[in-house]
Specification:
This protein is an alpha/beta fold. Helices cover about 45% and strands about 20% of the residues. The two termini are about 45 Å apart. The structure holds 6-O-phosphono-alpha-D-glucopyranose.
């Protein structure tokens, strides 16, 4: 691995640079190796880039992020007319920072210890070092008085590290995953450093009110600070400062997805999917990253029992489960994949007949058009995480159902459950309850389905990802959020 040069902070302090800087663990593009040995960049259109692209273009912004591999550091470049700065991670940093501290310490800890978090001091050191490099890159890219928006659990120390170098910039941070209750957070040996790292921001955004209040509690308990409503008062060399912590539930590009779902080629593909599935009355669908937080095994257990009991199954009903590959070198993810695949094979082995398969399992990622076709083909969407910051799949399903049909079974333990009142809410740990709810959702009358879907569609349409970004950025530029603890600023 080539050595990674330290950015030159002096350039930005001389006044050059960008007025809007996004700092996220991932770039909005993927590196593609060309057959001639060269490299090109393919857009990886996530919700975040859709939301921030207009702001980036208007403000002449820049996006700092990691390319997702341990190849050479890309540095500054342009792709699709956007200014990007690609950060490099060495093979050791991929192991200790990305797979280690981010995805084997923080991820399980913040998702209510569904898997046991591992605490290793050398992983923490890698986290500090990588956060420092991201902070330096941000300091280098930001113009005087710029707005810098830092994203997610991989970069929690960046706000403070950036503030120490650049007292002139306005700093926002958004946590895309849950922030755990203090009893759980307190396990983290570096809990004080993480809270102090975050408190370098002016505004901290969380998915749900509960996450914001959990964070405020951590400020009191881990650092001994005083909080008033949604405000934390912090000291510092420039005198006391107020940091706001509030909920800003993230969303999707609802109009864009709804339009894709109206396209004739996509609707045709949805009909084809139902045909190849054998024209069942009911198509159940699960779409997740293959992650232990998503409750895939609970869902399969419930569906398997429904098959055993003869309450659901082919030829009347089939389940399609898309499980996109994720973090495949992390042990807990490898174990989960084995367990999911064993469970699917067992169910299919016991219940399939020639030409009729109860579970269609797809360990792949698909483009947006194919996803929209799957959402259109599905009568019942199963979203059953054990813990999820938001869950955008639930919102995507709703956005695609232009004819207001279809039913959403949604775990109470998702951020989306706070917003989507028209869903059939479930506790995925309660397998009997999950089974009954799935059956109820498959049997819902068209009138009731429409009533439920209509209310969810209104919510997702009005509160789309552009609304989310705008609300956050307006709040970041404004004086305060309000004094309600964990006020929801949407
Ligand atoms: C979650 C996190 C993101 C992360 C994504 C994919 O949505 O909130 O920060 O980028 O998962 O995970 P990965 O490890 O592939 O970046």
């Amino acid at each position: 691995m080539p050595s990674i040069p330290e950015p030159d902070v002096a350039t930005a302090e001389s006044g050059a640079g960008h007025d809007f800087v996004v700092v996220a663990s991932r770039l909005p593009v993927d590196r593609v190796e060309e057959p001639d040995g060269g490299t090109s960049w393919r857009p990886s259109p996530g919700g975040l880039v859709t939301a921030l692209e207009p702001v980036m273009r208007e403000a002449g912004g820049v996006w700092i992020g990691w390319s997702g591999d341990d190849g050479p550091e890309p540095g500054p470049f342009e792709a699709n007319g956007l200014d990007l700065v690609g950060m490099g991670l060495s093979a050791e940093e991929v192991r200790d920072f990305y797979e280690g501290f981010c995805n084997a310490t923080l991820w399980p800890l913040y998702h209510d210890v569904i898997a046991p978090p591992q605490f290793h001091r050398h992983w923490w050191e890698a986290y500090v070092a990588v956060n420092r490099r991201f902070a330096q890159a941000a300091a280098q890219q930001a113009a005087r008085g710029a707005t810098v928006w830092i994203h997610d659990y991989q970069l929690q120390l960046v706000p403070q590290m950036l503030r120490q170098q650049r007292g002139d910039v306005r700093i926002g941070f958004f946590n895309h995953i849950p922030f755990p209750g203090y009893e759980i957070f307190a396990q983290l040996p570096w809990r004080r450093q993480v809270v102090e790292g975050l408190l370098g921001a002016d505004l901290l955004g969380f998915q749900r009110r509960a996450d914001a209040t959990n964070f405020l509690r951590a400020c009191r308990r881990a650092v001994g600070l005083t909080t008033k409503g949604s405000t934390v008062r912090v000291g510092g060399p420039g005198g006391p400062r107020d940091v706001q912590a509030a909920a800003f539930p993230i969303s999707i590009d609802s109009a864009g997805l709804s339009e894709i779902a109206q396209r004739e080629d996509v609707r045709k593909r949805a009909r084809e999917i139902r045909e190849v599935l054998g024209q069942p009355e009911i198509v159940l669908l699960g779409v997740d990253r293959l992650d232990y937080t998503k409750g895939i095994l609970h869902r399969l257990k419930a569906y398997g029992e429904l098959l055993n009991e003869g309450r659901l199954g082919p030829p009347q009903a089939v389940l399609v489960q898309v499980a996109s590959p994720s973090r495949e070198r992390v042990e807990a993810y490898r174990e989960l994949r084995d367990e999911v695949e064993l469970t699917v094979s067992r169910i299919n082995g016991e219940h399939a007949e020639v030409g009729s398969t109860p579970v269609h399992y797809l360990h792949q990622s698909y483009p947006r058009e194919e996803m929209a076709a799957l959402y259109l083909a599905a009568d019942v969407m199963l979203v059953t995480p054990l813990r999820d910051g938001m869950n955008l799949v639930a919102k995507e399903y709703v956005a695609c159902r232009n004819d207001e049909s279809g039913a959403l079974v949604l775990s109470e333990f998702t951020g989306a459950a706070d917003e989507l009142g028209g869903a059939f809410l479930v506790n995925p740990h309660d397998i009997e309850g999950l089974k009954d709810t799935i059956v109820r959702a498959t049997a819902v009358s068209p009138a009731e389905a429409r009533r439920r879907m209509r209310s969810m569609r209104r919510r997702v349409r009005e509160h789309d990802v552009a609304h989310w970004a705008q609300t956050f950025l307006t709040t970041l530029d404004g004086p305060t959020v309000g004094t309600d603890p964990g006020a929801t600023a949407y």
